[in-house]
Design goal:
It contains ten helices and no strands. The chain is mostly helical. It has one domain. Helix 1 packs antiparallel against helix 2.
């Protein structure tokens, strides 16, 4: 099973968008699945406020945990993490026109990628989760090169 499928299975079980993205990478993060689910628990529905989409939050958390930085050098580490967070949000905005959960739900502009469409994902949050999962994979692949 690939990570997009895994993220969808978490969501189908009732986990929020953040939990679904983060838990799909738990093995690569080298953390227990339960830890990933606990970390993301409060970030669904834009942390309950309709603000930053939980799927994006999960993507940023996953990237930070996997591609963090040298924590003995906090300033460069923060800059690198902020740059990754901006990139995720910019790419998400290019595709959906927004990053705020409230706006995404209102717009329901579901410009799914080819991979997401091929999987038959049509549920609004499912598309957001799949896209965020896909972005993490793409960004990690780029950093690995």
């Amino acid at each position: 099973m690939n990570r997009i499928e895994a993220s969808q299975q978490y969501h189908d079980k009732g986990y929020n968008c953040c939990q679904s993205v983060l838990a799909a990478f738990a093995d690569r993060l080298d953390i227990p699945e339960e830890t990933a689910l606990r970390l993301g628990a409060g970030f669904g529905s834009g942390a309950g406020t309709g603000e930053l989409c939980g799927a994006i939050t999960g993507a940023i958390l996953a990237l930070d945990l996997m591609a963090g930085g040298d924590m003995s050098q906090p300033v460069p580490s923060k800059r690198k993490a902020a740059a990754r967070a901006r990139e995720v949000q910019q790419r998400f905005t290019q595709q959906f026109g927004a990053v705020r959960c409230r706006e995404l739900l209102k717009n329901e502009k579901e410009e799914a990628s080819e991979a997401v469409r091929a999987m038959g994902i049509t549920n609004h949050c499912g598309v957001m989760i799949a896209t965020a999962t896909e972005l993490v994979e793409e960004m990690l692949e780029k950093e690995d090169r």
